[in-house]
């Protein structure tokens, strides 16, 4: 029997669960505090506030109170959706600036090594030219002359790979930056 025949249609349609603190929290609230749209909500529900460090919480920029992330407006009337969008934009901007700063720093750090590699170029090129023009087979002297150039190239390449790897981490973070990640890191 084939594998896809054994698996029911619903299971194959399953997708990885996305982080939606809002919906789960709303469902929980509906269970503990009565159904949605209750005309006479209990005092407990109206007075309920999330913990300040919860992923489901946002601190109102206007009144300073902790409010549920799922609410569009704070209880003081401040527009929380707009505040969250502003925070998200600022977070993205911050990531981009970090990347620019890191790549500029990497360029600065790599400049002397690039110059050293440039300085090593004649050590490799001239012996090769000599071999080419004179027709001499690879003598030990020629290899000795090429050695400093090759060593400079090797060192420069190692340093460059190391510095580039560090700024790659930030570049990857930016490529994977999602709204959910922003909520997590907030
Ligand atoms: Zn408020």
Short recap of the structure:
The chain is mainly alpha-helical. Helix content is 66%, strand content 3%.
Structural class: mainly alpha
Instruction: State Rg.
Output: 31 Å
Summarize the main sheet: 2 strands, antiparallel
Q: Note the total helix count.
A: 7
What's the structural domain tally?
2
Biggest sheet strand order reads 1-2
Bound molecules: zinc ion
Succession of helices and strands: HHHHEEHHH
User: Approximately how much helix is present in the residues?
Assistant: 55-70%
Strand content: under 5%
Regarding quaternary structure, what we see is: single chain
What features would you highlight for this structure?
binds zinc ion; two-stranded antiparallel ribbon; mainly alpha; about 65% helix; 2 strands; 2 domains; about 190 residues; 7 helices
Overview of this protein structure:
This protein has 186 residues and is mainly alpha-helical. It has 2 domains: 66 residues, no CATH class; 99 residues. Helix content is 66%, strand content 3%. It contains 7 helices and 2 strands. The chain has a two-stranded antiparallel sheet with strand order 1-2. The protein is elongated. About 3% of the residues have low confidence. Bound molecules: zinc ion. The site of zinc ion has 7 residues, from loops.
């Amino acid at each position: 029997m084939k594998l896809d025949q054994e698996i029911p249609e619903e299971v194959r349609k399953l997708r990885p669960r996305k982080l939606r603190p809002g919906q789960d929290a709303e469902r929980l609230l509906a269970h503990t505090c009565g159904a949605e749209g209750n005309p006479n909500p209990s005092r407990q529900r109206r007075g309920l506030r999330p913990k300040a460090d919860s992923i489901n919480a946002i601190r109102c920029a206007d009144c300073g109170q902790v409010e549920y992330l799922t609410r569009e407006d704070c209880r003081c009337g401040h527009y929380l959706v707009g505040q969250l969008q502003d925070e998200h934009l600022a977070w993205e901007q911050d990531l981009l600036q970090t990347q620019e700063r890191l790549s500029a720093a990497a360029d600065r750090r790599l400049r002397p090594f690039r110059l050293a590699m440039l300085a090593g170029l004649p050590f490799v090129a001239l012996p090769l030219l000599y071999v080419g023009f004179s027709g001499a087979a690879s003598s030990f002297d020629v290899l000795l002359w090429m050695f400093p150039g090759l060593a400079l190239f090797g060192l420069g390449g190692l340093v460059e790979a190391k510095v580039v790897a560090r700024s790659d981490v930030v570049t990857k973070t930016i490529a994977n930056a999602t709204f959910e990640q922003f909520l997590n890191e907030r």
